[in-house]
Every structure is written in structure tokens, then in C-alpha cells.
């Protein structure tokens, strides 16, 4: 028979485990994301998360993972090692619409000379989205930077296109949200963990 002290200890352990389990996920726009990630064998920390809205409508949830927390765009872009961002759709959208939105965001935050360095990767990136006929609410696009491999994308866990080798390209994608003309000015500070 268990003593009262043993029962209290087991009860306390159960509560701690339950709380620990709930702290391992964050919710953004109704979608759950892990509070950390593992890319190329390295543990990444949640840097920030937020929701993109447009005309009052929820568009997508976005979470950014880095090896160490960074609170400036330059810090994120200069971060060494693997990185990840995950984008969860909050409405239906075609792959073509997604691709066009990404390319527009890259174009707004890079100059022509910069884009000319990774024009083939831009084309490859746009082509990858053509393989998504219709994105549904809750679908997840994950984009990793894997050193010595490149930018690796998955759609609901399945590979999306081939790796794109240039770190400058990965940074150009991040500038969609962290550049001088972010697609959503409220999302930028959230990804930097400032709100």
C-alpha cells in the first residue's frame, strides 16, 4: 500500500509531465507547432512565430527555428548552421498562388543584382509550388537550410523539389518576412521574438 507522501509525489510527477508535454507545442492561428526542431542532427530553438493576415483574413501561420535566438533580421540572416521555417496554411490556396506570393516577396526585398545570382533557384522554387494543386487549411510547408545540402522543402512531410544550394537564396526567402519591405509588418517582430 502506498503512503500519502508517495501518492503526492506521483501526483506531482503526473502534473509535471502533463505540463511538460503541453509546453512542447505552440499554437498559431489554431495550428500546433513544436517549440523546437531537429535539422541535420542539430537541435533548433523556436525563435518566433506569428500569423499572416490580409484584409482581416487569416492566411498562414509561420514559425522560425534557429540554433540560437536572434532578435534582429541581420542576426537571423547571419546565423550559422541549419535553420527552419514552417508555414501552416490557414485557408485554401493553389500552389500557383503560393509560388507567386513567395516570388513577389523575394522580388520586393532583393535587388536585381542579388536575384541574378540565384535566378535558377528562383525558377526551381517557383516550379516546386506547381506540384501543389490545391493547398488546404492545415497543410504545412517546411523549408530547411541544411549546410552542404542547401534549401530543402517539404509539403506535409513529402519532399517538394530538389535542394537549392545557395545560402543567399535561403536568406532571400527569409527576407519576405524579415526584409526592408516585409509582406506583413506585424509578422516581422513576432518572428524575431519581440511580441
Automatic annotation (TrEMBL):
Keywords on record: Signal
Acetylation among keywords: no
Presence of keyword NAD: no
Signal peptide: 1-25
The organism's place on the tree of life at top rank: Bacteria
InterPro entries referenced in this protein's UniProt entry, alphabetically: Chalcone_isomerase, Chalcone_isomerase_3-sand, Chalcone_isomerase_sf
Domain Chalcone isomerase: 26-193
Protein name: Chalcone isomerase domain-containing protein
Organism whose genome encodes this protein: Roseateles asaccharophilus
Upper lineage: Bacteria, Pseudomonadati, Pseudomonadota, Betaproteobacteria, Burkholderiales
Amino acid at each position: 500500500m502506498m503512503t500519502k507522501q508517495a501518492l503526492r509525489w506521483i501526483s506531482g510527477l503526473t502534473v509535471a509531465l502533463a505540463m511538460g508535454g503541453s509546453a512542447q507545442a505552440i499554437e498559431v492561428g489554431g495550428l500546433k507547432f513544436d517549440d523546437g526542431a531537429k535539422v541535420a542532427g542539430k537541435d533548433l530553438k523556436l525563435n518566433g512565430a506569428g500569423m499572416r493576415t490580409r484584409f482581416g483574413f487569416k492566411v498562414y501561420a509561420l514559425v522560425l527555428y534557429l540554433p540560437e535566438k536572434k532578435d534582429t533580421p541581420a542576426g537571423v540572416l547571419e546565423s550559422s548552421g541549419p535553420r527552419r521555417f514552417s508555414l501552416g496554411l490557414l485557408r485554401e490556396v493553389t500552389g500557383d498562388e503560393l509560388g507567386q506570393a513567395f516570388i513577389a516577396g523575394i522580388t520586393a526585398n532583393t535587388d536585381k543584382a542579388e536575384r541574378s545570382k540565384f535566378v535558377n533557384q528562383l525558377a526551381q522554387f517557383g516550379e516546386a509550388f506547381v506540384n501543389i494543386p490545391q493547398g488546404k487549411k492545415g497543410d504545412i510547408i517546411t523549408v530547411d537550410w541544411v549546410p552542404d545540402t542547401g534549401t530543402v522543402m517539404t509539403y506535409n512531410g513529402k519532399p517538394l523539389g530538389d535542394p537549392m544550394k545557395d545560402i543567399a537564396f535561403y536568406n532571400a526567402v527569409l527576407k519576405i518576412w524579415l526584409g526592408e519591405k516585409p509582406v506583413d509588418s506585424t509578422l516581422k517582430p513576432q518572428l524575431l521574438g519581440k511580441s
